[in-house]
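Dear Dr. L.,

I hope this message finds you well. Following up on our conversation about the binding site, I have prepared a predicted three-dimensional model of the protein together with uracil. For your records, I am including the exact sequence and ligand specification that went into the calculation, followed by the structure tokens. Please feel free to forward this to your student if that is useful.
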Amino acid sequence: MRGTEKEGHMTLGQLEAECLDCNKCALRAGAKQVIFGEGSPDARLMFVGEGPGRHEDDLGKPFVGAAGVLLDKIFKASGLKREEVYITNVVKCRPPGNRMPTAKEIRACGDYLKGQIQLVKPSIIVCLGALATKTLINPQARITRIRGEWFERNGIKILPTFHPAALLRDPGKKRPVWEDFKELVRVYRDISVEQMDLKW
Ligand code: URA
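The resulting structure of the complex is given below.
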């Protein structure tokens, strides 16, 4: 069962409606809107960033500011289409001044991210940056040490890589991220072909 269908009593649309109505932490009051996530509810590949920034808060979509423009370029160069993947963040409301979300805010938003993962059921999750890496792999994880390594949690392959905003600050990180995307696409294409088996 995937995000478009019913799982127990909750669908992705219902989870989104709940999230849009959320007031579990103080971030909601300081943000213009809740940015739940977007993309295919049947995506095999999910990207998880940190939290919405100013442009995302203005437009209501994840990764539409400068980091998002760069992410789109990386997608294009990798042969990935934004519509075929699912994109979200650890926290769904913009932290004031783009500060790092607090542990309390991350916890308050945790069930939404967990629900998105359970409902979309991706085969692969890419953690964009340190916060997603710590949240989904290990709170002690250091992105600089483990980027490009595969992890597995609940049968889902997880690949941490640098956040696109980090590449804007330090273009030296572009090369390792490109290596990570080449590896990602290789594994993703293999999985996609396996799952197409006998669908024709
Ligand atoms: N940075 C993020 O982590 N997420 C966004 O949606 C935009 C910028």
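In brief: The pocket of uracil is lined by residues 49-53, 56, 62-63, 65, 67-68, 89, 165 (CB under 6 Å).

With kind regards,
A. P.
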